[in-house]
Design brief:
two-stranded antiparallel ribbon; mainly alpha; about 70% helix; 5 strands
Length: about 425
């Protein structure tokens, strides 16, 4: 790739990063105009974001100068939206979110540097699968229960949601396994020595890993992550094999898991009942869902204005219902803008996959892009009451350090793959 093209990519990224800085500065001004009571040190929060957004761009000029410009720009814009709304909805949490953004951008740069040699991850696929199950078991033994699910572990005074970490392990396993076996699984039957054999036995390692992880998640009562992993597995299997059979099987398994959760877990039953009829108990179990719907309706097309709505009456709005808050104060236009950012990030990730000359690189990039997009789609659909709520966070936007850091790390891996592909094409 020519030096001018390399510089052009990073310059385009710089312009997009400046847009995210401009958005956050404008959001701060809008909150001031609305008479919002900023948390102590709010100026530091804004300055810290502007500094780390620029520093991340500079780091990419050094470690991944040829990488695609869009993934980091889209991620940092979503982070700007998230920081504005976390400040608006939960002022005491704003500084912590800004601090986690610093950690996330640092890991993104490190991930981009390391992922330039992404092929080395391939040999660790089964280790990643084992680690995913081990982390889940450790969470079951030492974790804390919140909202009916046992998902959190306290490490050095910081609360970590371990299911965010296991998603990364599952991505590494899926990409490595399907890079090895995808060609076989794409064939309904194989001929060898004059005999015909089914390709399904080659699914055994995948099925065993998935069953172990889902069983552990079921014991932790985390049906949201179960849904995400099933959808991810189904999507990556289709990318690797092109067989609709795996999509149908995944959807049937997802439906069966939902039915099992409804029967086995009280909090899952409550979520499904509320999804079907939130008006049955509007003051208790249906309150959060109804307030989220009312917030979206109140926003109209252009919104109430940042700081002028009442999204903070929605319980857990900064984590579970932040998309509803965006729809109320920025309107349908703002909410669609956020949804489009996820679509842009998905397309950029899939373009990184298409550009990779390595089969493993294509699957790893696809899995990362699809995971972020699936998580976003599931939480947005839950806020819109298209599906039951799952309790997972909106990537880069919802309050939560574990999610923010892991998602930035995955974006860094995307950029590392993109850099490696560009170097190979030179």
């Amino acid at each position: 790739m020519a030096a001018g093209a390399v510089s052009g990519r990073r310059n385009a990224e710089a312009m997009l990063v400046l847009l995210s800085a401009g958005f956050l500065a404008l959001a701060w001004r809008a909150l001031e105009a609305a008479g919002f009571d900023f948390p102590t040190g709010s100026g530091r929060i804004l300055t810290q974001f502007l500094f780390v957004a620029g520093l991340g761009h500079v780091a990419l000029r050094i470690v991944a100068p040829r990488a695609a410009p869009v993934p980091y720009a889209a991620a940092i814009m979503l982070t700007a939206v998230g920081l504005a709304f976390v400040t608006r909805l939960s002022p005491p949490s704003a500084q912590a979110q800004a601090n986690w953004a610093v950690v996330g951008v640092a890991l993104m740069a490190g991930g981009a540097l390391a992922a330039r040699r992404f092929d080395e991850l391939r040999r660790w696929k089964y280790s990643a699968a084992v680690l995913a199950v081990v982390v889940l078991i450790a969470t079951g033994l030492f974790g804390e229960t919140r909202g009916g699910a046992r998902l959190w572990v306290t490490i050095a005074g910081q609360t970590v949601q371990t299911t965010e970490i296991i998603k990364l392990f599952v991505v590494v396993f899926l990409a490595g396994y399907l890079a090895d076996e995808g060609a076989v699984l794409s064939l309904p039957r194989m001929r060898f020595g004059g005999r015909t054999y089914s390709a399904l036995p080659y699914l055994a390692p995948l099925v065993l890993t998935l069953v172990a992880a889902l069983a552990a998640l079921a014991l932790l009562k985390d049906l949201g992550t179960i849904a995400i992993l099933l959808l991810l597995t189904m999507a990556v299997l289709y990318v690797a094999t092109g067989r609709v059979l795996f999509v149908v099987g995944g959807l049937l398994l997802l439906a069966a898991t939902g039915a099992f959760g409804y029967v086995a877990f009280d909090h899952a039953q409550t979520r499904i009942d509320v999804w079907l009829d939130p008006y049955e108990d509007p003051d208790v179990t249906g309150y959060q869902t109804l307030q989220g719907i009312y917030a979206i309706q109140a926003g109209g097309v252009t919104g109430e204005g940042l700081g002028l709505g009442e999204p903070d009456i929605v319980p857990a709005v900064q984590t579970d219902y932040i998309f509803s808050a965006i729809a109320e104060e920025l309107g349908l236009a703002g909410a669609m803008g956020v949804a489009m950012l996820y679509l842009v990030l998905l397309i950029a990730g899939l373009q990184v996959a298409l550009d990779s000359p390595s089969g493993y690189g294509r699957l790893l990039a696809s899995a990362i892009a699809l995971l972020i997009a699936i998580q976003a789609a599931v939480i947005i659909a839950g806020n819109l009451r298209i599906i039951p709520t799952t309790g997972i966070t909106l990537p880069f936007v919802s309050y939560g350090g574990s999610s923010l850091v892991v998602n930035f790390l995955m974006v860094g891996m995307l950029l590392g793959i993109s850099e490696a592909s560009a170097r190979e094409r030179r």
